[in-house]
Amino acid sequence: MENFNRERAKEYLRRLESLSQMIYACAEEAEECAGYAPMEGCGRFMKALMEDLRKNLESVRETIDYWKYQLQEE
């Protein structure tokens, strides 16, 4: 891997971890909100939103793992 600025990478990692927490909270809120859906279409929308948020959360967590590893290696 080409050289990278360690301080910037640490800040990037810190912000990714914060983003991960926010996405997790949004997914939890969407799940709760789905229980109050007034129509079937609303419930489907919220479930799709939850799935998308969870996929994004998985991607962010994989990126976090990658950068934690890179910072340990350098």
Largest sheet: none
What's the mean pLDDT score? 94
The helical percent reads over 70%
| Spans of at least 5 consecutive residues with low confidence | none
Q: Alpha-carbon distance between the termini?
A: 10 Å
**H/E topology pattern:** HH
Strand element count = 0
What shape does the CA trace take? elongated
Structural class: mainly alpha
Count of separate DSSP helical elements:
2
Q: What value does the Rg take, in angstroms?
A: 17 Å
Beta-strand content bin: under 5%
Structural summary, described in words:
The chain has 74 residues and is an all-alpha fold. The longest helix has 34 residues, at 40-73. Helix 1 (6-34) packs antiparallel against helix 2. It has helices spanning 6-34, 40-73. 85% of the residues lie in helices and 0% in strands.
Sequence-ordered SSE layout with sheet pairings:
Elements: H1 6-34, H2 40-73
Helix pairs in contact: 1-2
